[in-house]
């Protein structure tokens, strides 16, 4: 061990010998004496900017659906108010994940109520009950059975507003 340490010290000190700085100084002096290259080009004066007034800001956008859609706006607003999820509700931990990323790993019956065990992509198992939320589409757990859970998701569509759709998570074997 001492020999190895001694060899490392000798190798380290060998790097401290004369680095031939004279040759480096000579090369740098030659570079400094060389001409500097092309002279910079003079930029021509740019034309003066003239602003353009956009007169169609109040007109219908060409990227939206035809005028008939405006009649549906009232219907969409009503659907929005009836089925819109509660934005003031505190988000639950499993609402950060897509429903497809969550796995049902088991169900239990505790105190007369069913409890589902969900594994998120992070791997830590979370227990949920009916009335809990999961998934990014405001999924409300509607029913927990022995082999699956039924979820009601609320999804927004620009044409039809908020809509409910059923989804299930099935126990994997």
Automatic annotation (TrEMBL):
- PROSITE patterns registered for this protein in UniProt: PROKAR_LIPOPROTEIN
**Under which name does UniProt file this protein?**
Pilus assembly protein PilP
